[in-house]
What does this fold into?
Amino acid sequence: MTKKNIIVALDNPLDYQSVLEELDSNKCIIKVGSIIFNYHGRKILDEVANHGFEIFFDIKFHDIPNTVSKSIESFKGYPIKLLTIHLSGGCSMIKSALDSSKTINAKCIGVSILTSLNEEESKEVYNQEIQKTVSSMFNLANETDIDGIVCSPHELKLAGDLLQNKIKITPGIRLSDSNSDDQSRVMKPKEAINLGATYLVIGRPITSHKDKALAFEQIYQSIYEE
Ligand code: C5P
It folds into this structure.
């Protein structure tokens, strides 16, 4: 079976059709996140599905349990393979989201903390430093039996120790160490896979490349070549 560990982020609402046309749905999943979903609405889910792709619906639900559940259940019938919620929504919300995800045949994935938070902000919001906040979120993931988590590639080691047998999704992936965009603390694809990542979320290195299929293939080969 073809391996499918790459999730390609469709983040440009005005330039995404070529990504769907040029990439192979047998080799990758498509991320529909808040930028493109808020722009196009459900039509974008239909369009991605019509091109044969499975969907990572990275909408990061965060509300009271009933609202999150009803929102998730409203997506029944879409080929959503994975969807995200915020683990900081708490135990009851996570369990409700998990139950509702099962009814639409999607895996429920929890975002630990936003990697954009710095130490000061983590203390302001969670009253503890980043490392401790991430550990408590991972513990919550274990207690609730959620299907998986999203974390920075630099948290994969901790995720591997605390969260065996859970799906681990990580962004911040670049083919080379030098990086020209806003991602800091990047990691190479193979390195992240070796550290236990199940899926890598990769956007601009593929979607902004003039030859998207070639850019994808280079990353794909870098993971699977011996
Ligand atoms: O273009 P790039 O490869 O940086 O895209 C990474 C994707 O992962 C984007 O959709 C971005 O929103 C998402 N992401 C991220 N860092 C996080 C969480 C999500 O880059 N901490």
Summary: The longest helix spans residues 130-144. The pocket of cytidine-5'-monophosphate is lined by residues 9, 11, 31, 33, 115, 171-172, 183, 201-205 (CB under 6 Å).
